[in-house]
Amino acid sequence: MRILLVEDEPSAAKMLAKGLREHSYAVDVAQDGEAALYQISIYDYDLVILDVMLPRKDGLEVCREMRALGASIPVLMLTARDQVEDRIAGLDSGADDYLTKPFDFGELLARVRALLRRGEALQSETLTVADLEINMRSKRVRRAGQEIQLTVKEYGLLEYFARNTDRVLGRAEIAEHVWDENFDVFSNLIEVYVQRLRRKIDDGHEVKLFQTRRGEGYVLTAAEENGDSEK
Ligand code: CA
Fold first, then answer.
1. Domains held by the chain: number
2. What is the pLDDT of residue 122?
3. Ligand 1: distance of its center to the CA of 35 in Å?
4. Strand partners of residue 133
5. Ion ligand 1 residues within 5 Å by Cβ
6. Is residue 167 in a domain?
7. The pTM is what?
8. Domain that holds residue 17
């Protein structure tokens, strides 16, 4: 899942982005309100983490403007002081949730997970595709009860597929939600990662959950394969 982090304080932005990446999220950083609105207009983010105190345009204005443009992306607002008026203003501007600085990183992660669940109307912390189970809290993956070891990036890719089961995902869409703005569109990284991931998920299992749709992309599905013989 891809997050836009809007924070003008470089050390805080760096630390948060690093922590989120370690938890499998793709992260872009914007350092002021105008840059944030520009980024939101060109990329399809899954979540925005928005500091209130920002140069050029503050977080409240950014939130109001993106809502006015019809963007329904979940917004987690970071407020500096724990003042009731700030929180009310944040929620009134269209934010979905807020955290007061300083906050515990674990709490930020929990809010992020909750907002991403809300976006997908998911009730549980586990995604299930046939006998494949993905725990979004612990990031543990099991198939037929056997734990599968994945790298952070492989996990991020798998979670994105599992949130979009039965839907064919093309390169552009995968790049947009699993990689950040530094992704090289001319590389074959996605193919390499998908092949590696599907080997880990499907090798040794009679039912293959990953399928290739030639010229279109890949799909993760519990439905029986039909007419797809490509390995
Ligand atoms: Ca700030």
1. 2
2. 62
3. 14
4. 128, 142
5. 8, 51, 53
6. yes
7. 0.81
8. 2-119
